[in-house]
């Protein structure tokens, strides 16, 4: 009898605990913290410093392993953003050098169900999420701190209602792989500006304050998972039917600065883009030089920017003795529209100044990332801002001098 028990009990315990073991295997926890410090070295509005931080806690649940739901994954992420922004205190422009600032407080940033079908050739996702982690995003963004290029090219946020992390709203997304390398991607994201207010928690799911939808789309080519050198080429765009403010005129067609009336409300904006990432050297996909670039252009609507361009490089594995360090450089150009420049000229004149602000802003960032260990990366950076823009202070009497900023980003991933 004793021998039988010794055989039967372990087998029974194994069967009883098997669902729990599978449930544990199904859960992938995510815990990370990113900090971004910035300090003025010269130019801009004057001296000063700022620090912004983002903590993330989340989980991916493989519903196949947990319940036998083939191809399904539940994704839930909570974000806390805190700190201050250098552009408000010292830099003076409207494009941050701390890309994780915005949507301050603690909120649910993502709660979606992903379903893979047709041998993973079709990926559907729906729930509460944001457009900019599905479109125009890039893993290369982790190597930069400025917001002109990362987490996405800033143009898309300045000329559309593109929803951004961590301000979630209702969405649906579909990505189909036509071949193992060619894909078609389309999504629809509800626009609700009230969700972006500081202190919102992401749990107010009513659609009463929603103002419309933005529909991004893309077609692209991506290298295979086992490729020695990674590459991605993509064409895309967006359609935005949410209301927005005219950059110059009131409802009667008179410059709002002159009439004193509210700026006119408009509907309907769109744009297109082309971008690429191409690794050009290195022994494998995790070491070597990658070049990247993008161009974005509006196609309809009254916009504050005409076009945007960026170019840069990331080199992973800088020295034989530091195989996991990286060096990164990016340059961006924002070119303003005639309407936006005329509005700024009139606002400056009304305040007693003269002249028209510069027609565009160029931002540069050079960073070096130290891989302290597999969980911690520390990256000092140097930023140069040519012709800081005046959108945050239309009545400024004169242009600000070019600005130098020192940055320090660290990423802790557990």
Mind explaining what this structure looks like?
This protein is mainly beta and 414 residues long. It is built from 6 helices and 16 strands. The protein has helices spanning 2-26, 63-67, 86-91, 155-158, 256-259, 338-350; strands spanning 27-42, 49-62, 72-83, 105-117, 122-129, 169-177, 182-191, 212-222, 231-250, 263-279, 288-300, 305-316, 326-336, 360-373, 376-386, 403-413. The longest helix is centred in the first third of the chain and has 25 residues, at 2-26. The radius of gyration is 24 Å and the shape is globular. Keywords: Signal. Residues 1-23 form the signal peptide. InterPro entries: Carb-sel_porin_OprB (IPR007049), OprB_Porin (IPR052932), OprB_sf (IPR038673). Belongs to the OprB family.
Give keywords.
single chain; 414 residues; disordered N terminus; 6 helices; mainly beta
Summarize the structure.
By secondary structure, this protein is mainly β.
End-to-end separation: 48 Å
Neighbour order of strands in the largest sheet: 1-2-3-4-5-6-7-8-9-10-11-12-13-14-15-16
Summarize the helix and strand pattern as letters: HEEHEHEEHEEEEHEEEEHEEE
**Quick one: how many beta strands?**
16
State the helical fraction.
10-25%
Radius of gyration: 24 Å
| Whole-number mean pLDDT | 93
Which regions are unreliable across 5 or more consecutive residues at pLDDT < 50? 1-6, 8-18
Class by alpha and beta content = mainly beta
Strand content: over 45%
Reported for the largest beta sheet, the result is: 16 strands, antiparallel, barrel
Number of separate helices = 6
Shape: globular
Keywords: Signal
Signal peptide: 1-23
Organism: Pseudoxanthomonas winnipegensis
Pfam families: OprB
